[in-house]
Amino acid sequence: MEFISEELKNYLLKYCDPEEELLKNIDRETNLKVSMPRMLSGHYQGRVLSMLSNMVRPERILEIGTFTGYATLCLAEGLAENGIIHTIDINLELEEMVRSNFSKSTFKNRILYHLGDATKIIPEIDEVFDLVFIDADKKNNGTYYKLVIDKLRPGGIIIVDNVLWSGKVLEKQIDQNTTIIATFNEMVMKDQRVEKLILPVRDGLFIIRKK
């Protein structure tokens, strides 16, 4: 997943803003107690998400894939004064941990946590979004994209995680999961409704701006 050396990674962390204590605790607890902790955004990517959110100053954010809530809180840092973030996850086993993490945040009253199938929940949310973060089951990236694009205001941003898939998108012989990622990337590249670029941050962030 990492494309840079540990030394350079540490240098980048040195020159970005620190995590607040709650985020450090979420990172630590996730690594100690949750399977596949690498799914957590982590310090550097979290600061990227926070920076992008602060640049947009969104009134409404949608996050697809809450996991343990780390990225949710990073995105919430950029919310406008009366802004709200909707976050969706299907993993009921993490609910207690997530709700506990959110309850300790200054954004606790501005987070709407939805549990269930995002493909069913998204159409039921009657909002126009300024910022969408897609970081859930990769097989549904295209489905999520199609569900949110018409709910995104002009000038709004979609961020999609893991689009480099540990560099496997460059391989000639690719597995089914990599094919799904590569097909999604091609679809976005051909979509004339948006401006787009991939940032080689961690496992690749697709930044997509609606025209």
Structural write-up:
The chain is an alpha/beta fold and 211 residues long. Helix content is 38%, strand content 21%. It is built from eight helices and seven strands, in the order αααβαβαβαβαβαββ. A seven-stranded mixed beta sheet has the order 3-2-1-4-5-7-6, sandwiched between helices. It starts with 5 loop residues before the first helix and ends with a strand.
Number of strands: 7
The main sheet orders its strands as 3-2-1-4-5-7-6
Q: Could you tell me the radius of gyration in angstroms?
A: 16 Å
End-to-end Cα distance: 31 Å
Structural class: alpha/beta
Q: What proportion of the residues is helical, as a percent range?
A: 25-40%
Low-confidence stretches: none
Give me the strand/helix succession.
HHHEHEHEHEHEHEE
How confident is the prediction overall: mean pLDDT?
A: 96
Layout of strands and helices, then pairs:
Elements: H1 6-14, H2 21-33, H3 42-56, E1 60-64, H4 70-76, E2 84-89, H5 95-103, E3 111-115, H6 118-121, E4 129-134, H7 141-148, E5 152-161, H8 176-190, E6 194-199, E7 205-210
Parallel strand pairs: 1-2, 1-4, 2-3, 4-5
Antiparallel strand pairs: 5-7, 6-7
Features:
seven-stranded mixed β-sheet, globular, 7 strands, alpha/beta
